[in-house]
Amino acid sequence: MESKKKDSYEPIKSNPITNPLNQKITRRQAISRMGWAGIGVAAVVVVGVGGYLAYKEVYAPKGPSGVKMGAVLSLSGSMAGFGQGQTYGHKAAIDDLNAQGGIDINGTKVPVSYVVYDDTSDATKAAALASQLILTDKVDILIHGNGPPVTTIPICLTAERNSTPFIMGSPFEPWSAGAPTGGWKWSWSILFRIGTPPTGFPKGYTIADNYTGITSQYNSQYDDMNVAILAANDSDGTGWYQAFPGILKSAGYQVPDPQLYPALVTTDFTSIISKWKSDNCEIIWANLPPPDFGTFWKQSSEQGYRPKIAVIGRAPLFYQDINSWGTNIAYGVCTECWWDPSWGFTGFGSTTSQSLATRWSTDMNQPLNRNIAFGYAAVQIAADSINRAGSTDKDKVNTAIGETNGSFMCGPTKFFPDTHDSPCPVTIAQWQSPPSGSTANYQENIVYSIIPQYPATQKPVFPLPPWSS
Description:
Strand 1 and strand 2 form a beta hairpin. Helices cover 33% and strands 19% of the residues. The chain has 469 residues and is an alpha/beta fold. The two termini are 38 Å apart. The protein is globular. The strands form five sheets. It has a seven-stranded mixed β-sheet with strand order 1-2-6-3-7-8-9, with helices on both faces. Strands 11-10-12-13 form a four-stranded parallel β-sheet, sandwiched between helices. A three-stranded antiparallel β-sheet has the order 14-17-18, with helices on one face. The protein has helices spanning 27-32, 34-37, 80-99, 123-136, 149-161, 172-177, 207-216, 235-250, 270-278, 290-303, 319-323, 353-364, 372-389, 394-402, and strands at 42-49, 52-59, 67-73, 103-105, 108-110, 112-118, 141-143, 166-168, 187-189, 227-232, 259-261, 283-288, 309-314, 334-337, 405-408, 411-414, 427-432, 443-448. Helix 3 packs across helix 13 (372-389), helix 4 (123-136) packs parallel to helix 5 (149-161) and helix 13 (372-389) crosses helix 14 (394-402). The protein has two domains: 12-192 and 341-414, 3-Layer(aba) Sandwich (Rossmann fold), CATH 3.40.50.2300; 207-337 and 433-448, 3-Layer(aba) Sandwich (Rossmann fold), CATH 3.40.50.
């Protein structure tokens, strides 16, 4: 990891007990550690919010801090992979920013502090904790990264009710559908769109472009053009479930038996699998939580159902999730990819996409979590907006966010004023065999791209090999 200036700031990650993903913290442990936290620059506490206990982390420079950023993230539960990358990106950006003295507000450098809560992948907790950040912790701005609408929408609605700017990322269509009457005013998304082409953008900035692109290049090798669709009945899965059939049918495919199932409670997919096997569905598109897909995919193996291609949203995004499914289970599974270190985006100071990825691999000793870029970018956009606003006044900062026009760790960012989103590029990645000597079980490679400046790095594995191999 690159050396950093630490004369007035110590990163919280220097003490592993502060990372709930490195070490689970019980209520008793957290309370016993408050004495240590009181003399340092960071604190880990457990607080009561809405009748339940919530993990809270305070990440601050020594002495008084000027700008307070807050985040509610899924650091545990079914969506922990999202939160792990987000908070790492937040902290890396705040480290880099404070090493420069903080945010320049009218010629004065102001340091940044950070408060993060764990919503445990629970939508109700996410909303309550966002209120806690705004009303009790008095944060100036909310930051996020790339996350499912299951938890991001409740946070957005809380930000709207409390007139607090929120820089986040969520698939456009379900996020937009969850907006209050009149649309979003305080929430700004830096993620992709599923099927709605952004005006003025080339092909490649929607899931539809990429899912149909990689699937259709093998049309001559399918016996039938039948596609299995599986989606969870949460706000994320439902949005994709509604979009997929129309996208596929317009591209010449058949969708014999699309399935919208109860998320995180369904444990038996055998009847669904049996039907798709009899329908000869050699293609599967899906969007569901990681544990559910792991269960579905293992049951597919047991029943001998092996599609030739699997393009899956959400579930296989992060190594910690796919690795938990078992040996060889995730091999060949494709998913959307919205950032890669080779794309050449930059951060604060000398930080680049590649150096950020190197910091991650050094600190975490696991394959890349691509969400670090979106966590980092959220801090960049927040700092840039506060700088241009010349103030932490929420109305002025929110106006400045809407006027953003620059390049950040997630790429070029300029928000549409009516939809409040700035679509990011999308490619397709596939979990393949790791390089020789690697301790990881898989490596994620970009195997399909429509956008020339973000090219594929490997050829896709097609068709998927038999389960026994």
